């Protein structure tokens, strides 16, 4: 009987030893998903309370050169303007096929641009003067650094500027590391897009046969993210461009890209794994903590550094791979916005406000100018490509072109003019 008891005990220990790696992964997974359950105590179900909850992110005011007051574009409403037209059309060759809602036969493809954002206490956002912009920023360079949503904005700016340039006066030219770029020869103005999903360097990781700290916790594969090493695609951008526009966020809250069990994000610092393993949001904080001073130390004298807030997704009825769609044909109401994006509701699109909380904390006290596009974009469930062009899954993350990213650029130029006016 005693022998049987010892054998049973030995079997239990062996069984537990076998399960330990799995238990470690499950624990890490649970922590990851608990992140989405966290709610900021200052959040509220009303739109005004939502703005207060992200006050330093949402509250940006732009000095009006023609008046003594200022406009707060963080709060307002969309107004339909039948006469409003885009400065470029669907023939702009740089528009990615999946974003060309007019060519893709989206039912409201031509209506998307007819809505104008009116900030609180001021007139609607005006379309910037293209020739004045080109003249004012001659002999300079503008760099967009970030994921495909920053490419969305970059293409919008390119197409807008290209509309006033004659053939033969635009040359393709990519600064070091850039995914794409163009120079407007008459003005010697270059704009470029540097693709980077996490800002930091990352790549596939597999367990070593010799073991290690991560292997001892049961990790077999994943993605190594070096929080203190910049992605090579933009490492030189900070010292090259006169104006920089950064973004990050969409890949950090993406279980479909970084599965917390099958392919988790594994963070490294100074070449060594961070133990205990970090949640993705903690990794984001560490990347921003390294990236922001890096840019400020290496930026060109007088360079203007923007960080764009998170662009909202509008999946309803599930995520992109769960039958989610965005088939609305007009902007949401304020009540619908809160229902879709409130942290309290913890819906499919909650990432937008969670990311902004981390950006808010990281950017405080820095020399970055916050380009706030979140709240005004949360209304525009009608402005995504959705199923245009016969997509298998609705694209409720990127934006139609022409479309709302044109307004982002109008605000970007307003900011530049305001900074120039103050200086």
Automatic annotation (TrEMBL):
Leader peptide range in chain numbering: none
A single GO molecular function term of this UniProt record: O-acetyltransferase activity
Major subcellular location class: membrane
Domain (Trichome birefringence-like N-terminal): residue spans on this chain: 70-123
Keywords from the UniProt entry: Membrane, Signal-anchor, Transmembrane, Transmembrane helix
Topology relative to the membrane: Single-pass membrane protein
Domain Trichome birefringence-like C-terminal: 127-414
Family annotation (Pfam families): PC-Esterase, PMR5N
Subcellular location: Membrane
GO-annotated cellular components: Golgi apparatus; membrane
InterPro entries named in the record: TBL, TBL_C, TBL_N
Keyword Membrane part of the UniProt annotation: yes
Keyword flag Cell cycle: no
Family per record: Belongs to the PC-esterase family. TBL subfamily.
Protein name: Pmr5/Cas1p GDSL/SGNH-like acyl-esterase family protein
Lineage: Eukaryota, Viridiplantae, Streptophyta, Embryophyta, Tracheophyta
């Amino acid at each position: 009987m005693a022998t049987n008891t010892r054998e049973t005990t030995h079997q239990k220990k062996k069984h537990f030893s076998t399960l330990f790696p799995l238990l470690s992964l499950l624990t890490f997974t649970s922590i990851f998903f608990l992140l989405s359950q966290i709610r900021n105590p200052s959040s509220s179900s009303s739109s005004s309370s939502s703005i207060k909850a992200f006050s330093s992110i949402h509250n940006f005011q732009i000095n009006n050169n023609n008046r003594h007051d200022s406009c707060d574009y963080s709060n307002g409403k969309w107004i339909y303007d039948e006469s409003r037209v885009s400065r470029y059309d669907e023939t702009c060759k740089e528009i990615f096929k999946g974003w060309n809602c007019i060519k893709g036969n989206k039912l409201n493809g031509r209506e998307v641009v007819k809505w104008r954002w009116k900030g609180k206490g001021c007139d609607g956002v005006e379309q910037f003067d293209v020739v004045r912009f080109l003249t004012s920023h001659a002999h300079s360079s503008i760099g967009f650094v970030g994921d495909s949503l920053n490419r969305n904005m970059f293409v919008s700016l390119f197409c807008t500027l290209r509309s006033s340039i004659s053939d033969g006066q635009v040359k393709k030219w990519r600064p070091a590391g850039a995914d794409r770029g163009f120079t407007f020869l008459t003005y010697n103005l270059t704009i470029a897009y540097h693709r980077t999903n996490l800002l930091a360097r990352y790549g596939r990781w597999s367990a070593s046969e010799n073991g290690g700290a991560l292997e001892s916790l049961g990790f077999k594969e994943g993605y190594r993210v070096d929080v203190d090493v910049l992605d090579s695609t933009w490492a030189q951008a900070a010292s090259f461009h006169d104006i920089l526009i950064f973004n990050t966020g969409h890949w950090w809250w993406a279980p479909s890209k970084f599965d917390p069990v099958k392919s988790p994000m594994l963070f490294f610092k100074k070449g060594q794994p961070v133990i205990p393993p970090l949640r993705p949001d903690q990794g984001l904080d560490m990347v921003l903590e390294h990236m922001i001073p890096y840019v400020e130390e290496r930026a060109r004298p007088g360079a203007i550094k923007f960080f764009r807030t998170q662009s909202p997704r509008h999946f309803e009825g599930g995520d992109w791979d769960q039958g989610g769609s965005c088939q609305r044909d007009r902007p949401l109401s304020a009540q619908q916005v809160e229902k879709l994006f409130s942290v309290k509701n913890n819906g499919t699109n909650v990432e937008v406000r969670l990311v902004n909380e981390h950006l808010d904390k990281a950017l405080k006290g820095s020399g970055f100018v916050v380009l706030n596009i979140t709240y005004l974009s949360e209304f525009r469930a009608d402005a995504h490509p959705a199923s245009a062009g016969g997509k298998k899954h609705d694209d409720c993350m990127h934006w139609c072109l022409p479309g709302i990213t044109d307004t982002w650029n109008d605000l970007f130029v307003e900011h530049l003019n305001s900074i120039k006016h103050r200086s």
